[in-house]
Amino acid sequence: MEGSRERGSVSIQMVLLMPTLLLVVWIALGAAMYFYGRTTALAAAQAGATAGAAEHGTTADCVRTATDLASRAGDSLAGITVTCQMGAQTVIAVVTGNTLSLVPGWEPATTQSATVPREEIS
Known about the structure:
Blueprint lengths: L1 H4 L3 H45 L5 H14 L4 E10 L3 E10 L9 E9 L5
Antiparallel strand pairs: 1-2, 2-3
Helix pairs in contact: 2-3
């Protein structure tokens, strides 16, 4: 009779554990999408700053390169805004956008920047 008292215990365990497992997977996927968008923004900022820091690079080159790279990454980053500042010694590119989210109506924002020294030929 010992076995009959435990009858159905596996079903109860699955009812309790499956939602928890699905929640953990949901959170992991959300974090992965956020970090993918963040990495895309950082790569775009680095590419833009590098383009602007080239010998005859301009602010327009910086903005165009960063925008092109961010838009080619697909939906990982939306609402992209790129700003570039060219100083005497460095170029700073800042890329801002909204990353993907699994929660409807919530679009986490990310801002990434890169600073690259300007090329000088003596």
